[in-house]
């Protein structure tokens, strides 16, 4: 990395860009659930319907997704910080977590906001990460819960300004 973009400073500044918290899930060859947390999920194209996320090239989950050829993106809710911490590392990521199979056979986690079930369209190497592009097969809004967010190295919940206004009006 060049002196102009020192690693710690890069992370520090980029940490000031808020992200969503999305659990990317799949299953291994024994149909065991596998997954990880990403803050890089985004929609890519409407025609055809494509979404994507970026994953470290050394990721175990990436290896499983390559083999399975499918994944599900689960948008976590504001009250799922503990679930996110568990799914962002360690061996027992699905312990105590309820889930159902998506149409493609990927875990859809209980209590989330929305999910997008995908087959892998393309994986593109970009620096030390891989851009995983998925073709959307099924997608659904599960609840009207507020989403979990990540900002300046910490978790937070979303508060809409419309909601604030409503609260103020109701409070009158
Ligand atoms: C809020 C948050 C966002 C994250 N975003 C990403 C991401 O976009 N890409 C990535 O590769 N790892 C990301 N991580 C880290 C992975 O979840 C973590 O390294 C995980 O252990 C990878 O698992 P694996 O190596 O078994 O695939 C994020 C972690 C957190 C807490």
TrEMBL record:
Gene Ontology molecular-function annotations: oxidoreductase activity
Q: Which UniProt keywords apply?
A: Oxidoreductase
Q: Which Pfam families match?
A: Flavin_Reduct
Q: Which ranges carry the Flavin reductase like domain?
A: 14-157
Question: Which EC numbers characterise this protein's activity in its record?
Answer: 1.-.-.-
* Major enzyme class: oxidoreductase
Q: What PANTHER family does its record include?
A: FLAVIN REDUCTASE (PTHR30466), FLAVIN-DEPENDENT MONOOXYGENASE, REDUCTASE SUBUNIT HSAB (PTHR30466:SF11)
For this chain, the family text in UniProt reads: Belongs to the non-flavoprotein flavin reductase family.
**Name of protein:** Flavin reductase family protein
